[in-house]
Structure formats: C-alpha cells, structure tokens
Amino acid sequence: MAPSYVLAIDQGTASTRAILFDKDGQVKAMEQQEFPQYYPQAGWTEHDPNEILQSALNCSELAMKKAGAKKDDIAGIGITNQRETTVAWDKVSGEPLCRAIVWLDLRTAETAAKLSSSGGKDRFRPKTGLPISTYFSAVKMRWMLDHVAEVKKAADEERCCFGTIESWLIYKLSGGTAGGVHVTDVSNASRYMLMNISTCKWDETVCRQIGISTSCLPSIKSNSEIYAHVKNVSYLEGLPISGALGDQHAALLGHACLDVGTSKNTYGTGCFMLLNTGFDPVPSKQGLLTTVGYKLSPEDKTTYALEGSVACAGRVVQWLRDNLGIIASSKEVEILANKVEDTGGLTLIPAFSGLFAPHWRDDARAVAVGMTLYTSKEHMCRAALESTAFQAVDIMEAMKQDTGLRLVDMRVDGGMTVNNLLMQMQADALGMPVLRSKMAEATALGAALAAGLSVGFYHNKESVRAMIEKAGGYEVFNSTTSTAARQKMQSRWKDALKRSFELAKYDPNYKDEEKPKALKKPRFVKVSTIKPEQNGLNLQVKVIKLPDVVDGEKLHEVICGDASGTVTLNLTPSQFLPCEAGTYIRVQNAKVRMKGGYIRVEVDKWGKVSSAESPEADFEVNLKNDVSAVEYELK
C-alpha cells in the first residue's frame, strides 16, 4: 500500500510540533509540545539538545497515533527549525558538549565586537552575505571554543561536531554514534556566517579567520534529498529523512513564493521578511541580508533571497500588556485601536533593543513622538500596530532599491496576522495587497513539500499553489489609501525614526565604543632596519603567512615582509584577521619584543594594524633576509 502522509517536524524556539500532511498538502494530524528554556545569566538563552530531540520524537509518535498512522503510511520526514541556534556534540559519545546557544542569545557580543574591530561589521559580507552579529552560528561556535573547555578539548582532539538544530536532529535520528550522518541543508548553512553565498560551500578563508575548523562542520546538502534513514526509533524505523529548511525559508516555499519578486513576511515576536531574488545572490546595499531561499534537489539551481528582520513587532504588544498594563491580553490591542480613527499624531518607534534592518542602529532607543493631553491608551495601541506596519515598509522599500523590482503584493503568516486591523494598516502603508493564507501551517508545509518531492510523494514545487487553494487560498487586504496620504504617513514615521538615534548614550548601563585617536601620518621604515628595543615602529608590509589555527585572543605569529626582508609579528586575531596572505598591511606605533633572543614585533593599544592598498611600485619580498631569525644575546 502506497504511503498516505509526509511527516513534518517544525522545531521552534519555544515548542516543537509534528504535523502529518496528506497527498493534497492538507493537515491531517498535529501534536505540539513545549520544552524548557534556560536563562543562566542576563541576556543568555539556552536549550538542552536532548530535550529538543525528545520533544520531536514525542510529537511525532503522538501525531501518528492521532491519524492512526503506522510508519508504512509515511513517505518521508521533513524538518524545519529555528535558525542559528547552535549545538556542539561529541562524535565519540554522540552527546552534547554543552547546552545549545539560542539564536537570540547575547553572550557573544564581545566575540562579535572583536571580529568587527578590524575590518568592520561587514568584513565577511561580500562572501557570506551576512554582517558580523551575535545571531549567526559562527560567532556562537567561536564563543564555545573560547569559553567551554569541553568544546575546546573535543575540537583539539577532532571529536567536536558543530551544527544547527536540524543537523543535530538528523544526526540523532539517523543513529548517532551508530552511523548517524553529520549534515546541514543549504538554507541553514547560509546562516552560519561561514558559507560562501555564491558557491554554497564552506569558505575556507572565512573559517580560518574566525578560527573554525571545517572538520567540525557538517556537509552541506540541498533542501530536498534523502540524507539518511531513521535508525533505532521503532515507530519511525527505516523512514527516509528527505527534506530540511530553516523556518523562514520553509515559509517562503510554503507561501508559494516561487517567482522572482514574490515575498512573505512572518509576524511574531519580531518580523522576518524574505523576497525571492532568483538564481543569483543580490548583494544588499540597503542593510538587508543576502541569503539562500531554497534548493530543491542536488541538481537544482539555488534560489536566493533578500531578508530583512525587525526586532520588535509582537513584542510591542507584550510591552503594552506586561510593562504598561494598558491591555490585559494581546487580543485587546485591536479592540482598543479600533476605537480611534488614527493615532492622534502619535508615532511610536519601538527601538527597545535598537533597530534592525534596514537601519542597524544599536544606539537607537524607543521613542513616542507627538503626544498631547489628548493622547489616550487607544491612540497608543493604534500607534503600536502602526509601528509594525511601518517597519515592514522600511524593509520592503530597501528590497525595491536593492533589486529594482516592482513588487506587487506581500504574503503573510504568524501570530499577529489574526489582527485584521494590522493587516489593513499594512496594506495601506505598503500601497499593495496583503495576502493572508488560510493555510495556517505555511512553514511546516514548506518542509513537507521538500521532503515529499525527494521521495516522489509530491511531483513538483508548483503543486504548493494547489495545496494553498485547497486550504482556502488567501484572504486579501487591499490598500485603501491614496499615494499622497501614504507619503504623509511615511514622512511622519521617518521624522520620528531619526529622533530615536543616538539615545543609547543616555542609558547609564550603555557602553559606548571607545574610539581610537587618529594616529599621525607615519614614516615607514624598511624591515631590514628593525633592531632590538625599538619603539614607535611603522611598517608597510606584505603578509606572507598566517597561523594555521586561531586559538582565542592569544598572540599568534604572522610572517610579513618587504623588499628588504621578512619579520615575524606577534598579533592577536582581532589585529590580523582582516588580513590574507598576499595582501598588504600597515603596522603603526609598534614595539620590538625579544622572544628567546629573537625579534618579534608587537602592537599594543597605542598602536594600530590596518589593511593597506597595494603600493604603486609592487615589490617582491626578500625571503632570504629574515630579521627574526637573527639571534641576539640577551642582557
């Protein structure tokens, strides 16, 4: 008897769900289970990987029982997951080396700052499509290596496996130490900040500069292929694990955003908008992220996307409820907001933790602009909903500028989309139709489609359109505002937005970045003139050799030279990581230190290491004269 279902495991930040989809892409059974959240310190959020695994197994078993389904009734398993949350496990024991660091965890702020200190936040963007941020997995991996002894030891002994949640689940479901596979899909890999966005392979240079060995990383696969078969789980035994996507990418597919210029926006605590940009990655100049959309077989071309994220959407409603007490439940915000025709001139900028895309202003803070004695809680509720709509408009406008595309509508899902007033506000602010799918499980549907395609249960990606129609299609919210009215609203929003900038400096707990004083124009000396005990040394040299492995913030030997000779520099990773062999650097106000009678050049906080342009007259480094190879008698 032919299988009747595909099983989708939707692993989220707060809960896990398992859903059975039939041949028509309709939900036949679902089970959901929350799992513990751990907050060991302020700003830290952790998950137990084994608790996540158990929740996935429990939900799968219970969903199957609800449908009366056996394993023979299931064609394949698809997984969609919270992105960036990072797991480290021991390939020998098959067990986690520590709790998973969740995507919203802020402990890696210092790690991210060090990586950004030389070369800026966008130093890896040309290759990875991503700015340096606490969100992305590579920064979490680096933190684990620097701060968790078990992870560092396992990495040194080549026992460490890194992966995101889908990678961990696939490994354990496929047998763990009994033949489990260590893989990730291309959409999740694009969020590591280690994958070359053009080649969809780990970028060796970026990995080396951050200090992540590729031997610890999973193999990158497409979103739709058989990765392995389930082992040692009786009710799933032998089933193919045949699809995986990050949650936002799965939603892009589940909304049938198959054509260039189609977009979806998921409204939850924050907002995540993705735009299909076709087969070529589009570098963003407007503060968006270049990411993978999906790749639906090993042979298929990769579909790319632009992504914009908003930190506070549903979180603003929570603030009204929990902090201000204006509402008793989230549902009340729509009721109160509907009691007034407009905001009464009030504009709320919800920059409670800064502003994300496309502004990226961590110095911004929330402001309420335009209040009078007439302002009421009803106006505040309406302004809160309006702020979500306007933030989405900012991202949509950035997408238009980056792509030059004429965007015609936006498809939406997520908890806030039940708010009809917000959906109408969104259509009015955008000046385009907003399409709310009656298929409530768009994210899980994307995972089911990917899994079903690779095992022949579904025949083509276009079938998702019929699945959406069968579920009731879309409810359309059309814009009711004129262009002039929309422009006036936008002017009010932009004016208030600017007023939120640079307010963090008034927060007594805010640490502003210390700006280094400008150094005087240096006079560069030849390498061959370097002698013991010199200070204030300025060099312009070519990088010859970088360390093979980066180990925390220790001093590492970097060999450089010019036409007169070579010298060994002792630098920290934050000083040399922007460099690559063959490029030029400037070393200013350095000091000569002696190490066992040999010269080493170091740069303290009073000095500077920076990238340099190629000199007009290029030179061959004189490798025969190594000033660091000369032994001096120590006094």
Automatic annotation (TrEMBL):
Similarity comment text for this entry: Belongs to the FGGY kinase family.
Pathway: Polyol metabolism; glycerol degradation via glycerol kinase pathway; sn-glycerol 3-phosphate from glycerol: step 1/1
Domain Carbohydrate kinase FGGY C-terminal: from-to ranges: 265-453
Superkingdom to which the source organism belongs: Eukaryota
Domain Single-stranded DNA binding protein Ssb-like OB fold per the UniProt entry, residue ranges: 530-610
Protein name according to UniProt: glycerol kinase
Pfam families reported in the protein's UniProt record: FGGY_C (PF02782), FGGY_N (PF00370), OB_Ssb-like (PF21473)
Organism of origin: Durusdinium trenchii
Carbohydrate kinase FGGY N-terminal domain segment(s): 5-254
EC numbers: 2.7.1.30
Keywords on record: ATP-binding, Glycerol metabolism, Kinase, Nucleotide-binding, Transferase
Enzyme class label: transferase
